[in-house]
Design a protein that fits this description.
The chain is of the alpha/beta class. It has 16 helices and 15 strands. The protein has helices at 14-20, 27-34, 57-61, 130-134, 160-186, 200-211, 228-242, 252-263, 300-311, 333-338, 349-363, 369-372, 386-389, 397-401, 419-433, 478-488; strands at 71-79, 88-95, 99-106, 113-117, 138-142, 192-198, 218-222, 312-314, 320-323, 405-411, 441-446, 495-500, 509-515, 521-524, 536-539. The strands form four sheets. The chain has a nine-stranded mixed β-sheet with strand order 1-2-3-5-4-6-7-10-11, sandwiched between helices. It has a two-stranded antiparallel sheet with strand order 8-9. It is globular, with a radius of gyration of 23 Å.
Length: 543
């Protein structure tokens, strides 16, 4: 296939870099809706059914009088239907004054279920609930108790309560309140409760499973920030590696070509998508400039910086602290790692999130972590945040015991949350739960998939920030799969991911590919088109 057409330009402006780093739920979905997207009638969604007691505008505005613990309802209004989104009652409010939330409830197309939408970055605003509404759910979301852009943690400075609310408490409180709002509006409680989130939203889902196992029946999390403290140290590591060895965007295409050449065949198929980058032995030194510096090569300091980014953070004596990134599909490096190629990796998300955490959680507003952080002597300063900010507990027996189901997904080409960390966490869960793990928790690794969305591989399968297609289809949509697992006992043995021409759902389908529950891999069966999922089977490693 022509792999060049899959690559987006690496020449990014500051504004576009910041936009790419957002990772907020629903952005791409909202865009698809505005453009018309691909409409799927609500009646065609497998789990959407019309309720008998259709709600009136008066039923919505009556919610202004709700008396809920430590909660103020500040608005309740009807929002007209638009595209795939049905008419719904929008409720706004605040818990303990500072934790703002919204609840969105279809007036007549409710499927009887509850849906929490996780927020990206440092949250700070209420995520888009378009996807949940289009699927037929009553939904909620929160800013977790502070206001600001997704990368801005300044509102959390010197405020332990705000930090705790952000970590996990705010989402839990809103979940409890929102369920009461739903029950009051429909005069019946929701039959099941679900969660969908990616990145920090993935962390929120893990926090719920670990700390509040009664909150949700089914949880889908992607690219999760499992241990924020370790990830922030790794982000600092990447930025320190780039200091004085900055990699400009115009060199990224050569880097991507080099890893594709070295790694494409590791999954047994040369198709422009690296299916098993963990099996690839790649040395950045292959791009070392032999003569004059150019767009086609890396200087010796740049080679060393890239090697450190791939290796992950280490102490001065070589002790590994946190996994780095796998080689492959570096087209998103400017957004996530290397930035504009000046001043280390500014303003990549590695830098922005790390800088805000170091300044507003740990060391103070004037701290310069890129220049001043010593990985041997200073990392202990982050230890006091481990208990509340990290979601590392692999013991999920309370969640399992109540019948909860968990799907984790992570892109093999994720350059924000390293894919190896998701694998390590899942293996830790398996160490606790043994052979019973697959009965309630599964991990899907996605070839050629970036952080939460995008990438050259098939990248539409119901993750957060994707167009509203294949809604509630248990074979092609993560939420459809988790609902089918929870309610019908059918565990997802594979999820079909789709790639559209130019990543435009208005165009034709370029490729489909099955995502397999880890550690299984999708392998070509030997006949049929390599662009059709039916030509692949999920097999255990070594088979």
């Amino acid at each position: 296939m022509n792999t060049e057409r899959r690559r987006s330009s690496s020449c990014l402006t500051l504004a576009s870099l910041i936009c790419l780093c957002a990772g907020l739920a629903g952005t791409a979905s909202a865009l698809a809706q505005e453009r018309g997207g691909i409409d799927i009638a609500l009646s065609e969604n497998p789990i959407v059914t019309a309720i008998g007691n259709v709600r009136t505008p008066a039923d919505c505005t009556a919610l202004l009088g709700l008396n809920l613990k430590d909660t103020a309802i500040t608005a309740a209004r009807i929002v007209p239907a638009s595209g795939q989104v049905p008419e719904y009652c929008q409720v706004e409010g605040g818990v303990e004054t500072v934790i703002l939330f919204e609840v969105a409830m279809p007036t007549s197309a409710w499927n009887g279920r509850f849906f929490y939408v996780g927020g990206g970055g440092y949250n700070g605003n209420i995520p888009n609930m378009t996807g949940a509404l289009a699927r037929g759910y009553a939904a909620t979301a929160t800013d977790t108790g502070h206001r600001g852009e997704h990368w801005d943690a300044s509102a959390l400075y010197n405020d332990p309560q705000a930090q705790l609310n952000y970590a996990h408490r705010g989402a839990h409180l809103v979940t409890e309140i929102a369920k009461q709002v739903v029950t009051s509006y429909y005069e019946e409680s929701s039959s099941k409760s679900y969660f969908l989130g990616c990145s920090n939203g993935g962390k929120m889902g893990l926090m719920a499973v670990q700390r509040y196992p009664e909150d949700f029946d089914g949880v889908v999390i992607g690219g999760p920030v499992i241990d924020r403290t370790g990830l922030m140290i790794m982000f600092d590591w990447s930025q320190r590696a780039l200091l004085g060895a900055e990699i400009p965007p115009y060199k990224i295409p050569a880097m991507e070509r080099a890893t594709l050449q070295a790694c494409d065949a590791t999954d047994g198929l040369v198709d422009g998508v690296i299916g098993r980058p963990d099996l690839c032995e790649f040395d950045p030194a292959v791009l070392t400039c032999e003569g004059q510096d150019s767009a086609e090569c890396l200087t010796a300091p740049q080679v060393d910086a890239w090697r450190k980014i791939l290796d992950g953070s280490r102490t001065s004596d070589g002790e590994a602290l946190y996994p780095g990134y796998f080689p492959g599909h570096e087209d998103d490096y400017p957004a996530y790692v290397t930035g504009l190629g000046v001043n280390h990796g500014y303003p990549s998300s590695n830098y922005m999130y790390m800088d805000n955490f170091m300044r507003y959680f740990v060391f103070g507003p004037n701290y310069d972590a890129v220049h001043d952080f010593d990985i041997d002597n200073d990392r202990g300063a982050l230890d006091r945040f481990v208990a509340e900010q990290d979601a590392v507990d692999p013991d999920l027996r309370d969640f399992e015991a109540r019948g909860g189901k968990l799907i984790i997904y992570n892109g093999w080409a994720d350059h924000s949350t390293p894919p190896q960390r998701a694998i390590d966490y899942y293996n830790a869960v398996r160490d606790v739960h043994g052979d019973d793990t697959d009965a309630f928790a599964r991990l899907f690794m996605v070839p050629g998939f970036h952080h939460c969305s995008g990438g050259p591989g098939p990248n539409i399968f119901g993750s957060n920030a994707r167009p509203l297609v294949n809604l509630n289809d248990p074979d092609k949509d993560l939420m459809g799969a988790i609902a089918n697992w929870v309610e019908n006992g059918v565990a997802p043995d594979r999820i079909i991911a789709t790639k559209y021409e130019g990543d435009d759902v208005g165009q034709s389908i370029e490729r489909t590919r099955p995502l397999c529950p880890y550690p299984k891999n999708a392998e070509y069966a030997g006949s049929g088109s390599i662009d059709e999922a039916a030509s692949f089977v999920c097999v255990d490693p070594g088979n």
